[in-house]
């Protein structure tokens, strides 16, 4: 495919599907390149109407609700990540011979001849943490970089803003990519990329686990230097084997154990590299200590050590020095609601992992602590909990259940952990969280961890997982205030 230039979009009639952050970003960017843009969205809320008025004032047409159909004469459809492939709009586009792509694809096509390299990260869990670790490591090397994509910063804005207003152009971008974004980015070819893990998620969107994995695997297509995979998750290595990469591109594994050649791993509390060294059969390069990962927050959870290794592998593939890996990890601080330490009260530790919105994430969180009172529940999104409970049963001191689908977890506990005390809070209002924390505190003993790792989405009770985590922290704060 010939790389388009910004001028190629001038005069095209482009339909943007979705009035969210990425849709609004794409609409404004394409209109700025001279395209005739129409945004369509099936919703018609007050918030969407307000966004529509802003865009219309800028000369961008908007169709909401029942009017969200394919405009006549559309040359290209640019979709927001959440729109399902079987949407009627896309069926109409296919019937009209119109391509459908995502905002990541548009950004890739517009990046220019001297553009920054892309280091891509995907996986069921850990993407945001890994991308932010990677950006911190790259910055420690003195490179001009930023974390973009699914992390919240629209990549089109970054690509089109390169070098404007005298700003130094980026050397490299740390790019978080969801399975949705990869599905709609057929010509993306990263410098190097990582798939952190694979577990069932978003299957209602993709249709099957095979289709979900295939979309994740797109991140490896055309890689030029390294395809980074998880040694403990064979499915990620299988995706590397199936990828069509550039000649000389290498498969690089990461493991929590002792690494083999062409791998990064851990030896006696040290992160080591046996991939990007001169004699990887005989030598290993020390990169950092495990304690350098989020220093000051206690021993990092195993999955965050894995995230750090993946970030280090991508950075090393880009030529970053070992010292910058160490310095970047030391400078990195996790975002809220991701294994966030809230308090230690009377020998009990309180941890907020509200971001654990599926069973795979919750399993990793539960594996990080020895004795746990688990606060769980919410919207299951079609998940089952037997395997999670089986793997975690020996660690559970007690369980407090909240949310609409808590019965599914309760039934799994009855089957696989019948001796573990369970408190089932029959309520789905936000006020359930203080009661849940009080009940968890009652079940906990000194040395235990009260862990909010819901394994479910939050929307039955809270606006999002952030609000759920904040409610947990506030409830723990009430315990502190009451006891003092």
Task: Describe the overall structure.
With 484 residues, this protein is of the alpha/beta class. The protein has helices at 21-32, 46-57, 88-95, 103-109, 127-140, 155-160, 179-183, 203-206, 209-217, 234-242, 302-317, 322-331, 359-366, 386-392, 406-416, 432-443, 465-483, and strands at residues 13-17, 36-41, 61-64, 76-79, 99-102, 117-122, 145-149, 172-176, 192-195, 226-230, 250-254, 263-267, 270-273, 285-289, 340-345, 348-352, 372-376, 396-401, 422-424, 449-452. The strands form 3 sheets. It has a 9-stranded mixed β-sheet with strand order 7-8-6-9-10-11-12-13-14, with helices on both faces. Strands 15-16-20-17-18-19 form a 6-stranded mixed β-sheet, sandwiched between helices. The radius of gyration is 23 Å and the shape is globular. The termini are far apart. The model has no long low-confidence stretch (mean pLDDT 91).
What structural category arises from helix and sheet content?
alpha/beta
Main β sheet profile: 9 strands, mixed
Query: What strand line-up does the widest sheet have?
Result: 7-8-6-9-10-11-12-13-14
Give the distance, in angstroms, between the N- and C-terminal Cα atoms: 67 Å
As a percent range, the share of helical residues equals: 25-40%
Count, helices: 17
Query: What is the assembly state of the chains in this entry?
Result: single chain
Radius of gyration: 23 Å
Poorly predicted residue ranges = none
Strand portion, in percent? 15-25%
How many strand units? 20
**What would the average pLDDT be, to the nearest integer?**
91
Shape: globular
């Amino acid at each position: 495919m010939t790389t388009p230039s910004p001028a190629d979009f001038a005069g095209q009639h482009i339909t943007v599907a979705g009035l969210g952050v990425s849709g609004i970003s794409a609409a404004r960017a394409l209109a700025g390149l001279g395209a005739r843009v129409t945004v369509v969205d099936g919703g018609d809320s007050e918030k969407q109407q307000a966004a529509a008025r802003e865009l219309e004032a800028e000369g961008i047409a908007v169709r909401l609700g029942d009017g969200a159909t394919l405009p006549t004469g559309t040359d290209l459809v640019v979709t927001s990540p959440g729109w399902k492939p079987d949407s009627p709009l896309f069926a109409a586009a296919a019937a009209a011979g119109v391509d459908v792509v995502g905002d990541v694809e548009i950004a890739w096509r517009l990046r220019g001849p001297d553009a920054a390299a892309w280091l891509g990260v995907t996986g069921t869990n850990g993407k945001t943490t890994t991308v932010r670790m990677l950006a911190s490591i790259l910055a420690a090397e003195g490179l001009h970089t930023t974390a973009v994509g699914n992390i919240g910063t629209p990549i089109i804005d970054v690509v089109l803003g390169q070098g404007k207003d005298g700003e130094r152009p980026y050397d490299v971008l740390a790019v978080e990519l969801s399975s949705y974004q990869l599905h709609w980015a057929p010509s993306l070819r990263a410098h190097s990329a990582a798939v952190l893990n694979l577990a069932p998620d978003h299957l209602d969107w993709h249709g099957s686990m095979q289709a979900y994995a295939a979309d994740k695997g797109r991140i490896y297509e055309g890689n030029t230097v390294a395809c980074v995979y998880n040694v403990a998750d064979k499915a990620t290595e299988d995706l590397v084997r199936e990828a069509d990469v550039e000649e000389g591109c290498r498969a690089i594994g990461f493991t929590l154990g002792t690494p083999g050649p062409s791998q990064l791993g851990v030896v006696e509390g040290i992160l080591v590299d046996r991939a990007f060294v001169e004699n990887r059969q005989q030598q290993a390069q020390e990169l950092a200590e495990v304690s350098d990962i989020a220093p000051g927050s206690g021993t990092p959870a195993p999955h965050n050590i894995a995230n750090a290794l993946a970030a280090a592998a991508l950075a090393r593939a880009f030529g970053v020095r070992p010292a910058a890996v160490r310095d970047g990890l030391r400078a990195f601080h996790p975002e809220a609601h991701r294994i966030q330490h809230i308090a230690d009260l009377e020998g009990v530790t309180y941890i907020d992992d509200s971001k654990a919105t599926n069973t795979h994430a919750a399993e990793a969180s539960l594996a990080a602590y020895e004795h746990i009172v688990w606060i769980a529940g919410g919207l299951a999104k079609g998940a089952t909990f037997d395997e999670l409970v089986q793997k975690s049963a020996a660690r559970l001191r007690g369980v407090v259940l909240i949310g609409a689908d808590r019965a599914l977890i309760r039934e799994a506990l009855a089957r696989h952990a019948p001796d573990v005390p369970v408190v089932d809070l029959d309520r789905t209002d936000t006020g359930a969280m203080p009661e849940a924390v009080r009940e968890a505190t009652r079940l906990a003993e000194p040395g235990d961890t009260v862990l909010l790792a819901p394994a479910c989405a939050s929307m039955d009770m809270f606006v999002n997982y952030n609000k759920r985590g904040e409610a947990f922290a506030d409830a723990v704060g009430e315990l502190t205030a009451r006891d003092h």
